[in-house]
């Protein structure tokens, strides 16, 4: 057969199948584009290239970009395969017809190959072209998020280009192989009738259903009972796996189980609206359960990513303030109170020499000790021992009442068996009893957090933290001696200043030089610089998060679209028969709506539930990098969920229009 | 009173662009008495499907009226018409039109459920109906598990379960083998003997020979009628053959 005719058939086929083909090509283009953008940003000279950082923290961003492009790659494979399968399903009949008309398998293979190559070319060319244009835009967006000044000039990464070509070349080649095989295996007649075989009512797979129930319970239990960040780390991965498994099991087996139950109840089942819906849903679930479960998982992923990103950005400033309560922060260790005073004077003169004007000075001295929770008791945590349950450790700061009075400006007294307390995880009340290093102390009140929070070491936020104020310095030294931590006169010192106006880079450098000239072993932090670093890292993570969320969202939309279409074709005949038997249009529409809506909102509902359960673990997880208060986190979840739901409803409206169109074209 | 009155109906289709008009039914006029078994015969394109669609209230005539039990349903709204259809008419189709996702039992129940009947009274109707058609052993099976003949008997059961005033059958034997065909037609005769009015569209002479009256349609008009009277089935079959021959000759004449 001549190739001109075959080529014509290729184009005719594409035109005829445009309803399924266009979304496929869009999906292909979009995945190519996202992968290419992530890759070329990862190898972009304006971020990190050949060991040169374009700005502070750029290497971390480049790594995040690279990892997420790999996630995208894995995802693209699964996703394009899914879309391809849907595409080929619709073409089997056509190929069967060609076969009956006398086309050889070789010819059909030619058509398939030509088509796939065309699809690959379109997806890759359009994807990479838009990718190249969007690249610059994305880079500028990233720069905007992290507060970097924009750069001039375009760039092109050959490595990203090569990687993209290779990955998608392989994916499309695999799709082609699969298609050719599935077409060549069957004979024309079976291909022709491939969508007319009667099918069995789905059976309840009780084993899978139970597995789903058990894994869901286990996953939820792990997520809900995690109390500390370390528990969250160890259980997050497992609980995600369990819940994913459970979602698939319950969507496939659980739905059928429930529907069968409903069917067994004649009072419920033999009602006009239930009769048709229940039995239709059973078959729909049989075909679409896996797709719905995927939608559910993807939706959860989108909401989760965006929530994390939003809370990072919303809480950024708060955390910087917590990590660096003052514009200039100096941490030091001194021996004796006098040395501390000496250091202050030295630092003051260094400030003057550097031309830095300050408005406020903070000086705090304290001692630290690591404790372990042992039931209600707090015992010493030996640093030489490895504790498996990091969650039970308490990072504790000890202050004497004299110093505390100075900081707060009061003149209170404590007796030897009294204590003031602050604990990050527990609200203590006056009169309660604290069991500390084997002795009992009455809690006399709460420590003023605002005044003392300077002492908290922000890098230890993984642990529970506690501030204790005891009657005297001697008593505190007694404790340290008791546990063998000899440091009679050693204090940790926090010295901080609020400055008038921003500091220039030169001022910062000069000040650091001046301080280091007279003092060794001190750490100096400038809030402005740290803020910059923070936004570089988390801004980059947020940026990538948005990218992945977009990818997942697109996949969700596409799966929904395909699902609606395939169902539309299945239901077309069914509703025709029903209307012949005397189902009114109104009844039919009502029944369709119930089913479509249920199927549509079931995955999102489940996703929201997952998200609610997961919020606890996620919050604990985020606490490793920043302090997340429940209110802001809750707000982030709510905001993201509402926006997601709105987008989802919009997609529903658009896709259900296609569905109704299919339903209402009468087949004869 | 006649169960079905067809009053000079005419059906004209317009082509999509609104250009040419195609007359499917020119002038059809007849009536069916209660308890009759009428077969309508005609070649493909003679308009018999159009006629059946109009009788089934799936389509409306351009001119003329169809009265079922003295009532004209062309004035009804779509939804009311659907309800009218399910209470007054029963259908059998060539390709059975059973729903794959329902058991045989639920397929038979379907019209009752649509009518909103209590599920206990349904059981009292479904089982005897299935037994009378010899499919009571298959109730829990699915359509794809039973033979064509059994499928068609299920369709008959579904059509009769609401005790319709007319049973409309569109080529009911079209997809069946000869044994199932005979079986089904005998069953239809029996149903007819119990007082059920049946109107069957077919182009099979054998199928038509079971009817008490055969109407021939050609070019959108009733061309000829044969009443059985007290003829045997074979005599009836001969008559039908003759009529068909005449019909076909006439067709050749008009073509030449």
TrEMBL record, chain A:
<protein>
    <submittedName>
        <fullName>FtsX-like permease family protein</fullName>
    </submittedName>
</protein>
<keyword id="KW-0812">Transmembrane</keyword>
<dbReference type="InterPro" id="IPR003838">
    <property type="entry name" value="ABC3_permease_C"/>
</dbReference>
<feature type="transmembrane region" description="Helical">
    <location>
        <begin position="21"/>
        <end position="49"/>
    </location>
</feature>
<feature type="transmembrane region" description="Helical">
    <location>
        <begin position="289"/>
        <end position="315"/>
    </location>
</feature>
<keyword id="KW-1003">Cell membrane</keyword>
<keyword id="KW-1133">Transmembrane helix</keyword>
<comment type="similarity">
    <text>Belongs to the ABC-4 integral membrane protein family.</text>
</comment>
<dbReference type="InterPro" id="IPR027022">
    <property type="entry name" value="ABC_permease_BceB-typ"/>
</dbReference>
<feature type="transmembrane region" description="Helical">
    <location>
        <begin position="108"/>
        <end position="134"/>
    </location>
</feature>
<dbReference type="InterPro" id="IPR052536">
    <property type="entry name" value="ABC-4_Integral_Memb_Prot"/>
</dbReference>
<feature type="domain" description="ABC3 transporter permease C-terminal">
    <location>
        <begin position="71"/>
        <end position="177"/>
    </location>
</feature>
<keyword id="KW-0472">Membrane</keyword>
<keyword id="KW-0813">Transport</keyword>
<feature type="transmembrane region" description="Helical">
    <location>
        <begin position="236"/>
        <end position="259"/>
    </location>
</feature>
<feature type="transmembrane region" description="Helical">
    <location>
        <begin position="598"/>
        <end position="621"/>
    </location>
</feature>
<feature type="transmembrane region" description="Helical">
    <location>
        <begin position="206"/>
        <end position="224"/>
    </location>
</feature>
<feature type="transmembrane region" description="Helical">
    <location>
        <begin position="154"/>
        <end position="177"/>
    </location>
</feature>
<feature type="transmembrane region" description="Helical">
    <location>
        <begin position="537"/>
        <end position="562"/>
    </location>
</feature>
<feature type="transmembrane region" description="Helical">
    <location>
        <begin position="61"/>
        <end position="87"/>
    </location>
</feature>
<dbReference type="Pfam" id="PF02687">
    <property type="entry name" value="FtsX"/>
</dbReference>
<feature type="transmembrane region" description="Helical">
    <location>
        <begin position="633"/>
        <end position="654"/>
    </location>
</feature>
Automatic annotation (TrEMBL), chain B:
<dbReference type="InterPro" id="IPR003593">
    <property type="entry name" value="AAA+_ATPase"/>
</dbReference>
<comment type="similarity">
    <text>Belongs to the ABC transporter superfamily.</text>
</comment>
<dbReference type="InterPro" id="IPR003439">
    <property type="entry name" value="ABC_transporter-like_ATP-bd"/>
</dbReference>
<feature type="domain" description="ABC transporter">
    <location>
        <begin position="7"/>
        <end position="244"/>
    </location>
</feature>
<keyword id="KW-0813">Transport</keyword>
<protein>
    <submittedName>
        <fullName>ABC transporter ATP-binding protein</fullName>
    </submittedName>
</protein>
<dbReference type="Pfam" id="PF00005">
    <property type="entry name" value="ABC_tran"/>
</dbReference>
<dbReference type="InterPro" id="IPR027417">
    <property type="entry name" value="P-loop_NTPase"/>
</dbReference>
<dbReference type="GO" id="GO:0005524">
    <property type="term" value="F:ATP binding"/>
</dbReference>
<keyword id="KW-0067">ATP-binding</keyword>
<keyword id="KW-0547">Nucleotide-binding</keyword>
<dbReference type="InterPro" id="IPR017911">
    <property type="entry name" value="MacB-like_ATP-bd"/>
</dbReference>
């Amino acid at each position: 057969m001549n190739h001109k005719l075959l080529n014509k058939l290729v184009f005719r086929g594409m035109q005829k199948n445009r309803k399924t083909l266009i979304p496929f090509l869009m999906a292909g283009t979009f995945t190519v584009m996202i992968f290419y953008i992530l890759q070329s940003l990862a190898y972009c000279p304006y971020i990190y290239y050949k060991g040169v950082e374009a700005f502070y923290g750029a290497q971390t961003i480049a790594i995040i970009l690279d990892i997420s492009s790999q996630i995208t790659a894995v995802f693209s494979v699964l996703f394009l395969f899914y879309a391809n399968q849907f595409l080929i399903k619709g073409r089997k009949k056509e190929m069967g017809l060609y076969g009956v008309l006398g086309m050889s398998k070789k010819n059909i293979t030619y058509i398939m190959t030509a088509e796939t190559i065309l699809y690959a070319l379109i997806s890759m060319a359009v994807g990479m072209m838009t990718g190249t244009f969007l690249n610059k835009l994305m880079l500028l967006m990233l720069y905007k998020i992290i507060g970097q000044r924009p750069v001039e000039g375009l760039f092109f990464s050959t490595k990203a280009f090569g990687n993209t070509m290779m990955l998608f070349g392989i994916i499309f080649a695999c799709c082609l192989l699969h298609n050719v095989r599935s077409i060549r295996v069957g004979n024309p007649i079976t291909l022709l009738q491939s969508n007319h075989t009667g099918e069995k009512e789905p059976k309840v797979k009780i084993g899978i259903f139970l597995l789903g129930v058990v894994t869901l319970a286990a996953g939820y239990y792990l997520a809900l009972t995690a109390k500390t960040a370390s528990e969250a780390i160890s259980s997050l991965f497992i609980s995600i796996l369990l819940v994913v498994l459970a979602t698939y099991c319950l969507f496939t087996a659980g739905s059928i189980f429930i529907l069968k139950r409903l069917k067994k109840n004649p009072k419920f089942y033999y009602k006009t609206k239930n009769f048709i819906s229940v039995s239709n849903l059973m078959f729909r679930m049989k075909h679409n359960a896996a797709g719905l479960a995927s939608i559910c998982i993807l939706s959860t992923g989108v909401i989760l990513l965006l929530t994390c990103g939003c809370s990072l950005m919303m809480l950024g400033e708060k955390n910087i303030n917590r990590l660096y309560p003052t514009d200039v922060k100096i941490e030091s260790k001194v021996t004796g109170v006098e040395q501390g005073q000496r250091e202050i004077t030295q630092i003051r003169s260094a400030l003057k020499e550097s031309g830095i004007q300050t408005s406020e000075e903070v000086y705090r001295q304290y001692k630290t000790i690591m404790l372990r929770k042992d039931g209600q008791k707090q015992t010493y945590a030996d640093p030489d021992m490895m504790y498996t349950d990091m969650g039970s450790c308490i990072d504790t700061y000890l202050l004497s009442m004299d110093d505390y009075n100075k900081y707060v400006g009061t003149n209170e007294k404590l007796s030897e068996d009294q204590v003031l307390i602050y604990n990050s995880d527990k609200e203590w009340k006056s009169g309660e009893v604290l069991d500390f290093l084997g002795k009992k102390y009455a809690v006399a009140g709460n420590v003023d957090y605002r005044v003392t929070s300077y002492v908290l070491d922000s890098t230890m936020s993984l642990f529970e933290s506690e501030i204790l104020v005891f009657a005297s310095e001697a008593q505190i030294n007694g404790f340290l001696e008791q546990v063998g931590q000899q440091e009679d006169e050693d204090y940790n010192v926090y010295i901080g200043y609020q400055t008038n106006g921003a500091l220039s880079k030169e001022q910062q450098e000069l000040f650091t030089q001046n301080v280091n000239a007279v003092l060794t072993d001190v750490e100096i932090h400038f809030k402005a610089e740290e803020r910059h670093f923070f936004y570089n890292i988390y801004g980059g993570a947020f940026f990538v998060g948005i990218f992945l969320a977009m990818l997942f969202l697109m996949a969700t939309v596409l799966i929904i679209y395909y699902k609606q279409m395939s169902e539309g074709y299945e239901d077309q005949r069914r509703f025709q028969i029903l209307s012949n038997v005397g189902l009114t249009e109104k009844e039919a529409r009502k029944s369709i709506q119930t089913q479509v809506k249920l199927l549509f909102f079931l995955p999102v509902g489940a996703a929201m539930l997952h998200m609610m359960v997961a919020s606890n673990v996620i919050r604990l997880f985020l606490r490793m990098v920043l302090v997340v208060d429940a209110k802001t986190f809750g707000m982030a979840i709510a905001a993201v969920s509402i926006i997601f739901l709105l987008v989802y409803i919009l997609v529903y409206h658009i896709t259900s229009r296609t569905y109704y169109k299919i339903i209402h074209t009468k087949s004869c | 009173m006649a169960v079905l009155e067809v009053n000079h109906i005419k059906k004209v289709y317009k082509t999509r662009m609104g250009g040419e008009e195609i007359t499917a039914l020119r002038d059809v006029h007849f009536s069916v008495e209660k308890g009759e078994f009428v077969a309508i015969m005609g070649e493909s394109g003679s308009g018999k499907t159009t006629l059946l669609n109009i009788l089934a209230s799936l389509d409306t005539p351009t001119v003329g009226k169809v009265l079922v039990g003295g009532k004209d349903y062309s004035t009804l709204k779509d939804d009311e018409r659907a309800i009218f259809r399910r209470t007054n008419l029963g259908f059998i189709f060539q390709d059975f039109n059973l729903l794959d996702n329902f058991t045989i039992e639920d397929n038979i129940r379907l019209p009752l459920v649509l009518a909103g009947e209590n599920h206990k009274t349904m059981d009292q109707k479904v089982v005897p109906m299935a037994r009378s058609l010899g499919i009571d052993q298959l109730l829990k099976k699915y359509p794809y598990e039973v033979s064509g003949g059994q499928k068609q008997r299920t369709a008959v059961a579904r059509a009769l379960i609401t005790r319709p005033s007319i049973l409309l059958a569109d080529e009911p034997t079209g997809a069946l083998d000869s044994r199932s065909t005979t079986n089904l037609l005998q069953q239809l005769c029996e149903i007819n003997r119990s007082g059920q009015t049946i109107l069957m569209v077919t182009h099979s002479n054998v199928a038509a020979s079971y009817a008490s009256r055969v109407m021939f349609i050609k070019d959108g008009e009733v061309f000829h009628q044969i009443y059985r009277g007290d003829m045997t089935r074979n005599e009836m079959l001969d008559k039908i053959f003759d009529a068909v021959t005449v019909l076909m000759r006439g067709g050749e004449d008009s073509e030449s």
